[in-house]
Design a protein that fits this description.
7 strands, 10 helices, 197 residues, three-stranded antiparallel β-sheet, globular, four-stranded parallel β-sheet, alpha/beta
Length: 197
């Protein structure tokens, strides 16, 4: 998905990831930073990464998501080994508690389960800790999050040992549904900042 935008459309990219997506999204930026692409004679690159209520794993050490975060899944997640899935039987409280009832119902109907393998396979190496992305990574914390609580988000950030550009949004886990305009403004502001580096 990145190469057509970078090499055919000739646009720089800011990767925006959400929740579990922080792990594969950061890995996808490997080799695509501005310095790496310029060294290859390329004019476009991944100029930044923005994580929204995301889980971050350094990766590359053989650990999976579950072991990286203490060996336990959150209480709202149930393992369905027979179908190789992790399920959230009642997603409204952890994911959609601050949405209108109609929107929460629609979001609940659209929820799909994650593959268990994605949580029990080794995490790929991240790039948010790469020198090439220093000053180019931001994290948007969701203040009322019940899936990845604010305190846990802070612990995740501190555990990276990196300096982050941070923003806070006064929503639960699904800020893209609860406050899409406010979240969009934050993403645009951060993207412009990263583009100016």
């Amino acid at each position: 998905m990145l190469f057509p935008v970078l090499d055919l459309e000739k646009h720089d990219v800011v990767i925006v990831s959400f929740s579990y997506g922080g792990i594969p999204a950061s890995a996808a930026a490997r080799g695509l930073s501005k310095t790496e692409r310029e060294a290859e004679g390329k004019t476009t690159s991944v100029i930044g990464q923005i994580f929204v209520a995301a889980i971050l794993a350094k990766g590359g050490d053989g650990k999976d998501v579950v072991s990286t975060f203490g060996g336990h899944l959150p209480p709202h997640i149930r393992v369905d080994e027979e179908n190789n899935l992790i399920r959230c039987d009642d997603p409204k409280p952890p994911l959609f508690q601050d949405l209108s009832p109609v929107l929460a119902d629609a979001a609940t109907l659209s929820c799909i389960s994650h593959g268990l393998t994605s949580f029990t396979s080794p995490c790929p190496p991240a790039t948010w800790n790469a020198e090439a992305f220093k000053g180019r990574c931001a994290y948007i914390r969701t203040l009322k999050d019940q899936a990845v609580p604010y305190e846990v988000q802070n612990m995740i950030l501190q555990g990276t040992g990196q300096e982050w550009i941070t923003r806070d949004i006064d929503t639960g886990h699904s800020a893209q549904l609860a406050a899409p305009e406010e979240l969009s403004k934050m993403i645009i502001e951060l993207g412009v900042r990263m583009g100016a580096l």
